[in-house]
Amino acid sequence: MIEFKNVSFSYLSPERIDVLKDVNLKIDKGEFVSIIGRNGSGKSTLARLISVLLLPSEGEVFVDGMNTREEENLYKIRRKVGMVFQNPDNQIVSQIVEEDVAFGLENLNFPPDKIRERVDGVLEEVGLYEFKNFPPHFLSGGQKQKLAIAGVLVMEPEYLVLDEPTSLLDPRGRRDVINLILKLHKKGITIVLITHRMEEASISQRVIVLNDGRIEMDGPPQDVFKEVERLRSIDLSVPPLTYLSHLLKKEGYPLEVKLWKREDLLKEILQLKLRV
Amino acid sequence: MEERGSLKRDIAIEVKGLSYIYSRGLPYEKEALTSVSIKIFKGEAVGIVGHTGSGKSTLIQHFNGLILPQVGSVKVFGEEIKNDKKFLKELRRKVGLVFQFPESQLFAETVYDDIAFGPRNLKLSEEEVKERVMWAIDEVGLTSEYLERSPFSLSGGEKRRVAIAGVLSMKPEILVLDEPTAGLDPQGREEILSVVKKLKSEKDVTVIFVSHSMEDILSLVDRIFVLKEGRIVVEGEIEEVFKNKEIVELFDLSVPDIFLLGEELKEKGFKIDEPFRDPLIAKKEIVKNI
């Protein structure tokens, strides 16, 4: 479990900025949580506190009961928590795909045959096995991001924290990466996905909305995205079909505001016409 | 002039038989464009879509002569692009290109100086420069209070708008935007889209919009070109293209649900006058029917 207890985080220079303010949060093993919020709301800071790239200014963060403040926990926590960033180019270190994946294990002095086995397994899992001898720059954006994920997976993390992993990818790359994340979740890895894309947030089990350093909303996507006015008041959008149902409801039509599937909303609108 | 439907319209950009090979003659040469021919009319907004590596960026860099044609030709307002310093200078004033992540090119100490850089290079008087800066900052929806600030103190969306203002201050007749909303939060994206919509509605500017986002494309453009492996594989009015199930499937175009909902309602007998480009239009059209 990941636990935040009264966590605040501030940057002190050049001027004091309070990024997170008294955040309390629990994420259970096996959850798929997405975190949304506008730029500057504290999303990336929250992610970095989990992976111990940052320490809280006040309060405590625990990963499986280990306090991130205690130095002897650092390696253990980093082995448990894998982190993936927005730009895959900044996360690739080697000239050959399979060497890049092996990097973390080599640093841990794993025996070569064990490395071979794990690297092959992970490349197979993310769908890059056939490219294992390619230089990374031959890969597409989506493939590069999957390579970055592979480099983390090879360490067999229990938690995977992804900071806007699809925002620089084209639609195909985005779809591939999201499908991979879903697959990893099914395998039992806890997922914390930071995203600007509401359709990505809506496939997770739980959406946490950050606003100005505080948790504004926390619940299943069906509940969170109903609150159209509230989300829009903090500069967040809702999926277009949800917004449409909200607009129609405001016109006085008896229509539920929720995450709609297109075919269901179509039926509902046709029903409305019959009833009127 | 060109006959198109019943309208006679001036052509802004005409590309004919354009091919381009990177690292020509080397073992890893790569053909980025193959026999591309397109026409873009004055005052229209077109979208260019395609996956990463499909040749979009290579194509648009031809429009202001950053890349010169190897094979084929590019005409801007009837004049063929040629390797002539004076010609290219004038061309780059007419065709403003906003690159991906343009905020990374901000450099001056104040927003004012950044936007003024281009007009100053045109050797305009400081008064004219100021006029243009004031106009451009307003055009991108920022107040003049921003002018004395450092560009680096702004949010991502604000920085990007300043970068666009820097291009607008040259008063381009054609504005080319390469992935202008990539990496922005929803609010930043809305801001950029409304800037482009405003430009499109009030001025005679021709807008060429390159994007992965079909939602952005749908909300802004009249026609689209789909590039695949360096070739134009689809070209047409956006509704016609999005309606065509075969094409959509074949080229993996992720048509937004909101648009498809409109088409389906039409099939079910709804009278729909305007395609569903966004939820507001959709609401207006649905309300008329029930």
Contiguous low-pLDDT stretches of chain A (5 residues minimum) are none
Q: CATH architecture of the largest domain in chain A, please?
A: 3-Layer(aba) Sandwich
Regarding quaternary structure, how should these chains be classified?
Answer: heterodimer
Q: How many extended strands of chain A? A: 10
Q: What is the fold named in CATH at topology level of the largest domain in chain A?
A: Rossmann fold
Distance between the termini of chain A: 51 Å
Indicate the mean pLDDT of chain B.
92
Largest sheet of chain A: 6 strands, mixed
- Largest interface, Cβ cutoff 8 Å: A-B, 35 and 38 residues
Total helix count of chain A? 11
Number of strands of chain B: 12
Structural key phrases:
heterodimer; A: 276 residues; Rossmann fold; 2 domains; six-stranded mixed sheet; four-stranded antiparallel sheet; B: 290 residues; alpha/beta; 11 helices; 12 strands; globular
Question: How is this structure best summarized?
Answer:
The complex is a heterodimer of chains A (276) and B (290). Chain A is of the alpha/beta class.
